[in-house]
Design goal:
Low-confidence stretches: none
Number of helices: 4
Strand order of the largest sheet: 1-2-3-4-5-7-6
Strand content: 35-45%
Mean pLDDT: 96
Structural class: alpha+beta
Largest sheet: 7 strands, mixed
Number of strands: 7
Order of helices and strands: EHHEEEHEHEE
Radius of gyration: 14 Å
Shape: globular
Helix content: 25-40%
Distance between the termini: 29 Å
């Protein structure tokens, strides 16, 4: 699958990012909508991947402190490398602004995915929004 990744502010990508996040987190994973969207969106760098027909398929965000979050891929786009491409685009944006490392709270089932992109686990598993997570970190060189 070919896709185009846009990196921009929330004001530019809100509609498409919110569509994906609502579908994946709120509908599929039963995360309360009020937890899913937050005030941090306005200060993050956002990424949205679009398929060849222009449909938004995946998203993620980079917080000012170097945390990557809200990584989500719609069902029809999974297993095709789109999530990895979004993750790499956010890591590149962090590197470009001078960050030396990035961190994230991975859903435990996705830890191996993040591990394949250079992230290492830190600490113990914890619950967030009713889902098991593990903190992970990666250096940027």
């Amino acid at each position: 699958m070919k896709y185009d990744i846009k990196i921009a502010a929330w004001a530019d990508l809100r509609e498409d990012a919110a569509l994906i996040r609502n579908e994946v987190f709120v509908v599929e994973q039963n995360v309360p909508a009020e937890l899913e969207m937050d005030e941090m969106d306005a200060v993050c760098v956002h990424a949205v991947a679009y398929d060849e027909t222009g449909v938004p398929v995946a998203t993620g965000r980079l917080l000012p402190d170097g945390h990557i979050g809200r990584m989500a891929v719609r069902k029809h786009g999974r297993g095709q490398g789109i999530g990895g491409a979004v993750l790499q685009a956010l890591m590149a944006a962090a590197r470009q602004r001078g960050d030396r490392e990035v961190a994230l709270n991975a859903q435990t089932h996705a830890a191996s995915f993040y591990g394949s992109h250079g992230f290492r686990q830190e600490g113990e598993e914890f619950m967030e929004a009713g889902i098991r997570h593990i903190h992970m970190r990666a250096g940027l060189s």
